[in-house]
Amino acid sequence: MNRNRKLFGVFVLLALFTASAVAQVATADLHVAVRDANGAVVKNATVTVRNTAQGLERSQTVNVDGEYAFRALPPGHYEVTVTAPSFAKAIAKDVVITVGQVAELPVKMDLATVTQEVTVSTEAEL
């Protein structure tokens, strides 16, 4: 019986060690803050991060503070694209994050220019 307890104790310690090792996977976080040209929060912005080497892509809508944190990203080179209604698309290329880093990426969005097209055609009345 005492031997079984010792074996169980060793098993528990081994399981805890393994879980701890798995939890320490090499990742990083990327915190994105979206503002307009005047520094005001841009609501309803969608942020997409794409790892350019692996093709990994995640998208999320910012919170009420215009922010979102992508957690547990593999380290590497990323392209970050931000879109929002009434704003021009913002793209940050070659954003590099390293193991264990909590990277901060402020994004400034400009108002979209309005392009309007009017087509006029005339037809003879019958």
Approximate shape: elongated
Rg estimate, integer Å: 25 Å
Low-confidence stretches: none
Characterize the largest beta sheet: strand count, sense, and whether it forms a barrel: 4 strands, antiparallel
Residues in helix, % = 10-25%
Class inferred from helices and paired strands: alpha+beta
Summed up, the helix count is 1
SSE ordering: HEEEEEEE
Average pLDDT taken over every residue: 85
Q: How far do the termini sit from each other?
A: 105 Å
Task: Give the strand line-up of the largest sheet.
Answer: 3-2-5-6
Strand content: 35-45%
SSE blueprint and pairings:
Layout: H1 2-23, E1 28-36, E2 46-51, E3 57-61, E4 67-73, E5 76-83, E6 90-97, E7 102-109
Parallel strand pairs: 1-7
Antiparallel strand pairs: 1-4, 2-3, 2-5, 5-6
Identify the notable features of this structure and list them briefly.
single chain, 126 residues, alpha+beta, three-stranded mixed sheet, elongated
Describe this structure in words.
There is one protein chain. With 126 residues, the chain is α+β, with helices and mostly antiparallel strands. Helix content is 17%, strand content 40%. The protein contains one helix and seven strands. The strands form two sheets. It has a four-stranded antiparallel sheet, with no helix packed on it. Strands 4-1-7 form a three-stranded mixed sheet, with no helix packed on it.
In short:
With 126 residues, this protein is of the alpha+beta class.
